[in-house]
Design brief:
Layout lengths: L2 H14 L4 E7 L9 E9 L3 H7 L6 H5 L8 E2 L10 H14 L2 E6 L2 E6 L7 E9 L9 H11 L4 E6 L5 H6 L5 E7 L11 E7 L10 E8 L2 E7 L1 H18 L12 E3 L2 H4 L4 E3 L4 E2 L2 H4 L17 H8 L21
Parallel strand pairs: 6-7, 7-8
Antiparallel strand pairs: 1-2, 2-6, 3-5, 4-5, 8-9, 10-11, 12-13, 13-14
Length: about 325
């Protein structure tokens, strides 16, 4: 099975068990943005999750969350951001926060004043990072990726998910703090039948010290590795951004092609609507595999699939929350 299909199958399975907010392919570096991409991120929420869900379905800009904009009196937007926030970045954050309903604004004397529609809740309890490697015989940079997760300790737990039989040699190469799941296909001798899976916990993960400084490997040279020491405060901000991106993005970020050979799977059979190609007889990564260059390509109208509505039905995420906009523009000009 391809890593792409394996990843979608695992997300659908975890979602069916109501295991928090799931997202795919998110950056999990601090000192080197883009240096580490997590295959799957699972956010385990606190009891304040419903407060977060009621604000907006989108990711809230971190600069807006960190600003001095509160829920009381409005503030002139330029005065609400610290000196370390570039004015252009502050302006983009303000516009985006207003667009998605986290800020509300009013104009007075040619200036824009903003305030939060609701106090930002502490809605994230734990973050779990999952690295997918169905075939351990082709590990790639697996060991260094997992070592980064352990040394940086940005996530509370790091887990390796695989289809391979895990040998003692594998266990010795994989950092001992990393949990290991072996994914089994139930009820079928065909390894490409994703209709039912079972997770065997080979090794439980060890909780990582997210509240302590982390070490992020940057660049390797013969005999040495450049690293960055990451403070707990920087890790906390990155964790919040990671959680917000996960909430806004989710894991249904794939497409369906304009090809008669590819059709949407039944959500009740697979746990999600996935792109299945009859010609390849498997789940396909449309962006990478589909198009006129494929020998099985048969031009047709792309199917209509509302993945956002599916996420709304099957997860705690809300596509159209009521929001908290108070419609009180102008009240505090008399304060």
């Amino acid at each position: 099975m391809s890593e792409f299909a394996f990843e979608l199958e695992l997300c659908a399975h975890l979602e069916s068990r109501n295991e928090g907010i799931l997202a795919r392919q998110l950056g999990a570096s601090v000192a080197d943005p883009g240096g580490r991409i997590l295959d799957v991120v699972r956010i385990e929420p606190t009891s304040s999750f419903e407060e977060r869900a009621a604000i907006t379905c989108e990711a809230i800009p971190d600069a807006a969350i960190e600003s001095d904009v509160g829920t009381g009196r409005t503030r002139y937007w330029k005065e609400a951001f610290g000196d370390d926030c570039h004015p252009d970045h502050a302006r983009r954050a303000t516009e985006r926060a207003c667009e998605i309903g986290f800020f509300e604004s009013e104009r007075r004397n040619g200036r824009e004043y903003v305030r939060q529609v609701a106090r930002y809740p502490e809605w994230v309890d734990r973050i779990v990072g999952i690295e997918n490697k169905p075939d351990l015989g082709r590990p790639g940079n697996l060991e260094s990726q997992l070592r980064t997760d352990v040394c940086l300790a940005l996530v509370d737990e790091a887990i390796l998910a695989t289809e391979s039989y895990v040998t003692r040699a594998h266990l010795n190469r994989i950092p001992k703090e990393v949990g290991i799941w072996r994914v089994h296909h139930e009820g079928s001798a065909d390894p490409d039948d994703e209709s039912a899976i079972r997770i065997e916990v080979v090794r439980e993960p060890t909780p990582l010290p997210v509240d302590e400084p982390g070490i992020e490997p940057l660049e390797s040279h013969p005999g040495r590795t450049e690293v960055a020491v990451v403070s707990p405060a920087k890790k906390a901000r990155t964790r919040r951004r990671l959680a917000e991106r996960a909430y806004g993005k989710g894991w249904r970020t794939y497409e369906f092609p304009a090809c008669a050979a590819c059709f949407p799977t039944d959500v009740d059979d697979r746990g999600a609507t996935l792109p299945h190609c009859d010609w390849n007889d498997r789940i396909v990564d449309v962006a990478a595999e589909c198009g006129p260059a494929c020998p099985g390509y048969d031009p047709a109208d792309a199917p209509t699939v509302d993945l956002e509505a599916e996420r709304d039905r099957r997860t705690p995420w809300q596509a159209n929350p009521d929001g908290r906009r108070r419609r009180q523009s102008g009240l505090d000009r008399f304060g």
